[in-house]
Amino acid sequence: MKFFEKQKEGACCEPGCCGAVETQAQTESLKESQTESETEIESERLKAQVREKYASIAVQAETSCCGGGGGCGMAEVTTFSEEYSGMDGYVADADLHLGCGVPTDLARLRAGDAVVDLGSGAGNDAFVARALVGEAGRVIGVDMTPQMVAKARANNRKMGYANVEFRLGEIEHVPVESGSADVVLSNCVLNLVPDKDRAFAEMFRILKPGGHFSVSDIVLSAPLPDFARKAAELYTGCVSGAQEKSGYLETARRAGFQGIRVDREREINLPDSLLEENLTPDQRAEFRASGVKILSINLFGERPAFPETRK
Ligand SMILES: C[S@@+](CC[C@H](N)C(=O)[O-])C[C@H]1O[C@@H](n2cnc3c(N)ncnc32)[C@H](O)[C@@H]1O
Question: Quick count: other Cβ atoms within 10 Å of Cβ 97?
């Protein structure tokens, strides 16, 4: 499919991509004991859960005056989204407070760029990107949750932008032509994708040689003990699938990206009250002694212009 070719409303990128499918950490631990097809089934089950959550956030946002909220795992306590209002291109109905950074800030977007936003939700970053690339640029948002895509399309209709489009599809099979994007964005989504190798490989595929990505996400400084993972998920909503930072960067390298750097990083501290409510005294002591940090980062990387050296 050509980059700018319109996808039919509700259409799927390819057979199976919109079918049924929690997260990488859980998937990884299962991988060793599973066959390939069992891993695939587990991955599809986890994605089905994610889709269900975001469908309900999108629908809630339709009926509530307060937006979706809840971060990537629909946490009930706190969200880590940044303040977008006041930015050029900001569309309030597209801001469901689901992000964990501002990937457009560090994306070096230029007028006329072709941009793809992976896991575009209701369109928040896509509309900000559109303001930066202007009339001559193009923005495609891709999301696997039909209700999110419907919301993003409705927002776009209200804005009347001819150079913004939202496609239903999965990051594992991005419905965008190879080598067609100048910049790939994503905000708090890759932690939800079970197969991160595949996600980075798809980012590489759709970028033009010399193109780059800017991705905001949640990562860990070291493995989080299972008991702490549950409490952290209650707080941030984005931790259950979060990978270790070093592994995350290595995944991007394996896909062939160069110039990889973390250009923004902030620690998310779990409040004592949350730990007290959810962990035993021994677990709290173990967690504190572990020194594991939950980090919100922005990662930047480039697809080499030439030659392409995949590891
Ligand atoms: C935490 S929300 C972030 C939405 C948007 N980036 C924002 O900041 O408002 C995650 C979004 O990614 C989508 N998503 C999760 N896994 C996906 C996948 N494998 N392929 C495509 N979309 C996915 C979900 O449907 C949801 O809309």
Answer: 20
CA of 229 to the centre of ligand 1 (A): 21
Q: Ligand 1: distance of its center to the CA of 237 in Å?
A: 13
**Minimum-distance ligand 1 atom for the alpha carbon of 58:** 27
pLDDT (tens digit per residue) in 137-181: 999 999 999 999 999 999 999 999 999 999 999 999 999 999 999
Please give the structure tokens belonging to residue 201: 């490989």
pTM: 0.85
Going across the sheet that includes 181-187, the strands are 164-168, 138-143, 114-118, 181-187, 207-220, 294-302, 258-268
Amino acid at 14: E
Distance of CA 285 from the midpoint of ligand 1 (Å): 34
Give residue ranges with CB within 6 A of ligand 1: 47, 50, 54, 72, 96, 98-99, 119-121, 124-125, 143-145, 148, 170-172, 187-189, 192-193
Domains of the chain: 24-302 (3.40.50.150)
Instruction: Give residue 195 CA to ligand 1 midpoint distance, Å.
Output: 14
Token pair, residue 162, equals: 């001819």
